[in-house]
Amino acid sequence: MQYSDQFFSAIVENSTELITIINEKGVLKYISPSVEKILGYSPSELRNTPILNFIHPDDAKIAQKAFSYVNKHKKVKLPLIRYKDKIGNYRWIDCITSNMVSNPVIKGFITNSRDVTDRILAEKERKESQAYYTSLFHDHPDLVFTLNTDGLITNSNKQVQLKLGYLEEELHLSSFLEIVYSPDLKFTSGAFKKAISGKAHHTEVRVKRKDKGILCLQLTIIPVSINNILQCVQVIGQDISEKKNAELNLRSLSMNLSQQNQDLQQFSYMVSHNLRAPLASAKGILNALKIVEPNDPFGKQAIELLEISLENLDNVIIDINNILSVKDNQGASDDESCNLLNLVTEAVLSLSDQVEDAKGDMILSVDTHINIKTRRVYLYSIIFNLISNALKYKSAERVLKVKVSAVQSKTEITFSVSDNGIGMDLNKHKNQLFKRYKRFHLSKEGKGIGLYLVKTQVEALGGTIEVESTLGLGTSFIVKLPVKI
Fold this sequence. Notes:
By secondary structure, the protein is of the alpha+beta class. The chain has helices at 5-14, 35-38, 43-46, 60-70, 117-138, 158-164, 168-171, 185-196, 241-289, 297-328, 340-350, 352-358, 376-392, 426-429, 450-460; strands at residues 18-22, 28-31, 75-77, 81-84, 90-100, 108-115, 143-147, 153-156, 201-208, 214-226, 229-239, 336-339, 361-365, 371-374, 401-408, 412-419, 464-470, 474-482.
């Protein structure tokens, strides 16, 4: 079948591609009507004008070199070149040029061109977006993870390796929960489920370093969805370990300051009341002695009262010195290895007279192999005072039984002193139990300083003390001290 010239003309005139004929001098001789849709010109506006007039200055040399090359070849795909449209913008045009200079009808170069501006701009935007994402992800100063919908790590940035010590391949497709510190697992799992439900939020979590250290992170957890379908979860972790440590130190400092204020108030009370009373008594007695005869019976009684007052004054000063010695030496490090059973036995022997007077039973349940590195004088004082306390508050209704027991774990030693004595009502007295000069059984002798001194010494050793007691049944004091290497 043969086609007429009108047939081919109709195809060219209605093609969506831009078809042009350029002569050997680079002048446009023919432009198809599609130019109006692509560049906004009518064909007549471009006819007989140099093609270089419409090419971007930066692309002019590329175009000249391409046309020089096409002179020696039949068909050439030109590099992408920007052409100016009618309103002054530049469009990216993709051209294929055929050399038909020798054709007596054409006498020039035929170009088939397509506008690829949208594709180029989209590719540019994609590359910029990718560069932005790469910078935001890999170069982010914080730790960044990408998790799939199952909570597995699919990507992590270089800060993860710097801060946690893991290589990217070590974490790839492992659960994020595997690096979470075990006490934080439950709420971290809840935080991930919250993100899966589409809610971005913040939380704090402790994670494990490869070297077994712990890092505290402020997490920003962001669900990423496309067309309302969750694709992944982005996790950004800011290292707040130093901030947390500073907060803990500040809290500790604040507590110490508060305790020191309480101590100052207590010592103010001791100086103003406890010292003033025996001094006033002694002063009054001395004044009385000045007006009595040496052999007067009243004089002898006054001297006895003076001795009692001075003894009371001496006891108060001893109490103050004992308390101050503990406070002043809390930062000291004169620890020594002590066998706990030996210390308990030594304390019981020192109290043998009281044990005999109480007609009670002493039960020692302490393993011979329990050794503790601590300040021996404090630990002995703690044991001595707790056993002495048990002997003092025995019940008249039954034979006294005092049990000293101890167990050791990897991190701490727990020992207790339990009795079946008169006990106490902790609902009334627990908050006052370890205060200075607090007494709960006025029928028993005492100054109310022993348990305060015990608690002060326990805390100086880095430990804790608790009490369990039932009125009429007995009392147990439980002391926990850290194991030091």
